[in-house]
Amino acid sequence: MGSQASKVSKSTPQTTHYSSTDEKTQAKADAASTAALLSRLHLPQQHQFNRDPLGSSSFDSQPPSSEISLDLFAKWQNSFERNDRAQFASTVLSKQHLSLALLSRQALAADKQIFSHTLTVQPTPVTNQKSSGRCWLFATCNVLRMGIVKKFNLGDFELSQSYLFFYDTLEKANYYLESMIDLADEPIDARIVSHLSSSPEGDGGQWDMVVGLIEKYGVVPKAVYDESYHSSNSGGLKTFLTSKLRDFALELRQVHDDALNQSINILGKDRDSAKADAVTHARAAKEKMMAKVYQCLAIAFGTPPSANSTFTWEYLDADKKAHSLVSTPLEFYHNHCSGFKASEYISLINDPRHDFNQSYTVNRLGNVWGGRPVRYVNTTSETLKDLVIKMIKADKPVWFGCDVGKMSSSAYGIMDTKLFVRVLMLIPASLDYESAFGVTPQLSKSERLQTGDSAMTHAMVITAVHLDSQGNPVRFKVENSWSDTAGDHGYFMMTNDWFNEFVYQIVIPKSVAPGELKKAYEESKPLVLPAWDSRQDYIPFIAGEDLGDLQRLLQLKRHTCNTRQMTSKIHAGHKLGRTTPILIFEPNSKQLRK
Q1: What integer pLDDT is reported at residue 442 of this predicted model?
Q2: How far does CA 557 lie from the centroid of its chain?
Q3: Torsion from C-alpha of 123, 124, 129, 133, nearest 10 degrees
Q4: Cα-Cα-Cα-Cα dihedral sign, residues 389, 393, 394, 400
Q5: C-alpha gyration radius of the chain
Q6: What is the pLDDT of residues 257-269, one digit of tens each?
Q7: Which one, of 479, 395, 343, 412, lies nearest residue 27 by Cα?
Q8: Rounded to an integer, what distance in angstroms lies between the CA atom of residue 62 and that of residue 187?
């Protein structure tokens, strides 16, 4: 889930904010008022805006030009000024964000937090990743804590997301520097080198990456290793580390080249022997660099327990009885997570660009060097939903990845393809651009991936499902990590249609997978997708862009997140021509969502 993000415009759109206890009621009323005005624009199909801005599909006497001429611009302008409906749309829509102006009252009424099948335990509190891109770690900890809460009869309880984040940051630094040694013979401007250097220290990650962390370092309660400023607000530290790692990378290339030349030209060694010497010298230099990286992290985050060091966890159970437990992080994971074994879980994806029942991996996507490689098995969306239902009925939560910025509202906790829309021509839903602008996107799920219009940006946990009388899924309950101020006390509702369009990945035990998918995972040779693949490409938030800058500019307190390896910052739409909308201003939530 980057290159440098573009500057945010100083001319920030004016946005209405609500602070009373009737925030959502007032927001609904405003949305309904706007919808009523917009309904006056909606005429029968033959009277809607012509898709040709000039109202004609025929060419003038002059052939079409490659440039925007002043005469052509004048025609567009005159046509617009004569169009009363377009003028009215401008009057309505130019004063607020589209996600408010086009909010569907019908969808708000239809989308309910009612579910027929729910997990027996809903741990508290709702977690808060704050201004960081650690959603994949939060989702993992939210899955693991359910068994711990049951075992110890706990009330409020969290695992330490910061503990895993410390070691993820350390491992990513090593992964990047080791990759630079491995690619030392490549030109510095080779695409793969440039891609890895674009974000060597992003916040995000993937399921197999967290498996590597947990199996190596274990887990600890949050009370043992709590949040620091820099774990909750990662931008500043990651900016610094990103620059320093690039500095180290250039130094490693020089050490490698000097050792290689010396072995060949002075010592007379053959190429293979000289290459081995060069790698040895570079790794010796890398160890010294990594010691400096560790020091930076220990200063910024605080020193975490090591994997085999003991800690004492003191806690109160749900009956307010005091207890104490001595353990190591690895022992806590193996002995107190109710038998949860991360290594037995696999990732299933729905990527209609590629063949189903086939496994895939991504070139140089990882954090723990030599650890478990990132691997997926591709299947249908219907299969993913069937397996989610099976998991919920078995009282097991489901870690999943999606494009959270599409057709969603963090204020209302709704992910619904009809949230802002009137479905036209049976195409995937979008904001009701047709009524507003006379045009609407017509991209399929596959086409959104091909063009970079959609990608996996966020990981959360499915904790409930509502089935109709025929057993078909209607909606899913989602545990988010944006605090209890987002959605319905921190929980979101996801419709069946939204799942089809914007859910890309679920994680399940391999034993639960259908036979053909299990066989594909175990026996098929994974096809290697490029590191910059549009679905697996790191989220387009570049390490080094400080979200706080935008917060200060907008005078808001906001945060975002993702599942792929990038920090949760400001997306300017540069990778693979991405042009997805970024800022979603919502009436009830002082949070910035992708």
Answers
A1: 82
A2: 19
A3: 10
A4: positive
A5: 26
A6: 999 999 999 999 9
A7: 412
A8: 48
End-to-end CA distance of the chain: 13
In a domain, 576, yes or no: no
| C-beta neighbour count of 361 within 10 angstroms | 18
Residue that is written with structure tokens 């300017």 in the block: 572
The token pair at 272 is 């293979």
β-partners of residue 503 are: 402
Residue 401 has pLDDT above 70, yes or no: yes
- Looking only at the bridges linking them, the beta strands covering 345-349 and 376-378 are parallel
Closest CA to 559 of 227, 209, 135, 225: 135
Do 123 and 146 contact (CB within 8 A), yes or no? yes
Range 468-474, long-range pairs (CB < 8 A, 24+ positions): 472/496, 473/385, 473/388, 473/389, 473/499
Residue whose token pair is 């002043």: 70
Residues known to be catalytic: 135, 458, 480
- CA-to-CA distance for 497 and 99, rounded, in angstroms? 19
Are 485 and 591 contacting, i.e. CB atoms less than 8 angstroms apart? yes
* 3-state DSSP assignment of residue 7: coil
Q: Is the dihedral of CA 579, 580, 582, 586 positive or negative?
A: positive
Strands 358-362 and 527-529: parallel
Half-sphere exposure of 116 (CA within 13 A, CB side): 12
Element (H, E) at 326: strand 322-327
At 420 the three-state DSSP class reads coil
Q: What CATH number has the domain bearing residue 367?
A: 3.90.70.10
How would DSSP label each residue in 360-406? EEETT--SSTTSPPP-EEE--HHHHHHHHHHHHHTT--EEEEE-TTS
Tokens of 10: 């100083």
Global confidence as pTM? 0.81
**Tens of pLDDT along 330-380?**
999 999 998 899 999 999 999 999 999 999 999 999 999 999 999 999 999
Tell how far CA 88 is from the center of its chain: 37
Q: Measure the CA angle with vertex 389, ends 342 and 361; round to 5°.
A: 45
Instruction: Tell me the per-residue pLDDT of 293-316, one tens digit each, with 9 for 90 and over.
Output: 999 999 999 999 999 999 999 999
CA-wise closest residue to 163 among 203, 233, 236, 218: 218
Rounded-to-integer distance, Cα 501 and Cα 446, Å = 9
Domain count, the chain: 1
Residue 272, domain member (yes or no): yes
Tell me whether residue 66 is in a domain: no
Tell me how crowded residue 28 is: count the other CB atoms within 10 A of its CB: 17
Residue 495 in any domain: the answer is: yes
Cα–Cα dist 89/35, whole Å:
11
Residue the block writes with tokens 């996801």: 494
Secondary element (H or E) of residue 466? strand 458-467
- How would you classify the pairing of strands 491-495 and 414-415? parallel
CA distance 282 to 287: 9
Cα–Cα dist 238/7, whole Å: 19
CA gap 333, 350 in Å, rounded: 30
- Alpha-carbon distance of 538 to 547, in angstroms, equals 17
- The residue among 48, 36, 32 whose CA lies nearest residue 440 is 48
Which domain does 312 fall in, by range?
117-529
